[in-house]
Design brief:
Helix content is 20%, strand content 35%. The chain has 3 helices and 11 strands. Strand 9, helix 2 and strand 10 form a beta-alpha-beta unit. The chain is α+β, with helices and mostly antiparallel strands.
Length: 207
């Protein structure tokens, strides 16, 4: 199936109330070639890009550090001598306000980031670069091993370490609020190793 006929795609990104959303990254993934075409919505919630058909495209929405399948766009086969018109696509989404950074790791009992954390933190950095007005809270949590006061201080230090990483890459300090919650908000059973592992987490919240 030759990919040689261009189609102009005009996309409008809104929330479910119809308000235009700025800085949302929309992907179109070709089913045939697997190539991904990306665009970022402007202050009017709009973006334009060129795709090629015939092909089917999976429309995907880039979140904080995740990408979610949204819908599909079909560019059908055309008769010889004909061309694609303009395709208008509306993407209605409710952007995530909270996300757990599953791949952020620290040295045991310390606030030193492991190098394995950098890839996911770089994705968070890219999100903040797209969403220029976004202000986030970095929420640090621990399990219940050790003294509560020590865990509170450790969680605060770890959230500040994440902030420092992002600030060093160029994000304004005023956009990041580090908060340590210690062991006070478990999401799993602290009586098991797996539960404690889940409770030792770093979350991002859009303020």
């Amino acid at each position: 199936m030759a990919q040689n006929k261009p189609a102009q795609i005009k996309v409008l990104v809104t929330n479910f109330s119809g308000t235009e959303l700025e800085g949302e990254e929309i992907w179109f993934k070709s089913v045939v070639t697997k190539k991904i075409y990306k665009g970022k919505s402007d202050e009017n919630g709009r973006l334009e890009l060129q795709l090629f058909g015939p092909d089917n495209y999976i429309i995907m929405v880039r979140g904080i550090v995740t990408t979610t399948d949204y819908s599909k766009l079909i560019l059908p086969s055309l008769e010889k001598g004909t061309h694609y018109g303009i395709y208008e696509v509306t993407v209605e989404i409710d952007p995530a306000k909270e996300y757990t950074l599953d791949r952020v790791y620290f040295e045991t009992g310390k606030s030193i980031l492991k190098s394995d954390s950098y890839a996911e933190l770089d994705e968070l950095y890219e999100y903040l670069m797209r969403k220029k007005s976004a202000i986030i809270e970095i929420a640090g949590h621990t399990d219940n091993v050790g003294e509560p006061d020590a865990n509170l201080k450790l969680s605060q230090a770890r959230s500040e370490a994440v902030k420092t990483y992002l600030v060093n890459k160029g994000i304004e300090e005023s956009r990041i609020k580090p908060v340590g919650y210690g062991e006070g908000h478990p999401i799993a059973d602290n009586n098991t190793e797996n539960g404690r592992s889940l409770n030792r987490r770093t979350e991002v919240r859009i303020i």
